[in-house]
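Reply to dn_fold:

You asked what the input looked like. This is it:
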Amino acid sequence: MRRGVGCGVRARRRETGGGPCGLPGYSRPRVLGVGGSVISRPTIAQLRAFLALAEHLHFRDAAAALRMSQPALSGAVAALEETLGAKLVERTTRRVLLTPAGERAASRAERILAELDRLVEEVHAARGPLVGPLRVGVIPTVAPYLLPVVLPRLAAGFPELRLSVHEDQTGHIVAELLAGRLDVVLLALPLDVKGVTELTLYEEDFVLVTPDGSDLPGGPLPRTALTDLDVILLNEGHCLRDQALDVCREVGARAAAATYATSLATLVQLVSGGFGVTLVPETALAVETRAAPGLVPHRFADPAPFRRIGLGYRATSPRAGEFEVLAEAIRTAVTTEIAAVRAG
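and this is what came back:
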């Protein structure tokens, strides 16, 4: 990976069969040093494996994060230790500890891989907007409703774009973004995280969903209508839970203390079963109410409670121009979708 010293002559040999990683076709980069001695160099795969282990301090969790088998990860770390001639981790029965050499290696590996990722980003940016791989993180209360609307338009408008999507809660996808494992995230704003640039995509109203036969009047409701209702919410960690709580607190409404759900789909089914009422973003309204019988949506009078959805990316990313193009494509798709929901 790095230029040799001394005579500056570079050589590369390939070891086939079972190598230090225990994988067929494993190759160890080598360069010729002073006097013709062979100096081994770590591979990118070894550095990524070790850095994941340094982050999770557990072989199983690190392997899962990289979507590789635990033996393969263990072999890659062992090969890195052999290459560097130092023990980087202390293996115990329950967890992994970094040695002093491992602490230094993890810090340097993080910088090396960050620079490598930046190199890839700069090359992709030079090829034109939305070309090549793009790793996108999306929160669960946006992904099922936004992606079916947006993905076909992106495929048609940017045929050379290769999207990979990771769905998770806000805290997790932001951590992945800052670590360089995601390029851009779609989530609720404001985020207010240092080092992350935000672009607003759209705003959508919250709609109150109740069981059929409730005593609520027809027509737009004031927010104070929530005061006498049991509002059921998502579990901790979902930003939609926090937004719904904010709406309830504004009018002194109570949240149902004993009932929570992990998804909007479950929330709506609970309402259908008579467990209370809930707040649903309008882009999710048609999908979720269609799947549950006996529900009535109630819109709020202006100013209706709403949430703002946006796009976030690292402030240092050279692909800022691409993300502006992506944001505009999403705005165009969603504007049509929300208009159809409100008309219906």
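Residues 30-98 form a domain with the Arc Repressor Mutant, subunit A fold (CATH 1.10.10.10).
Hope that clears it up.
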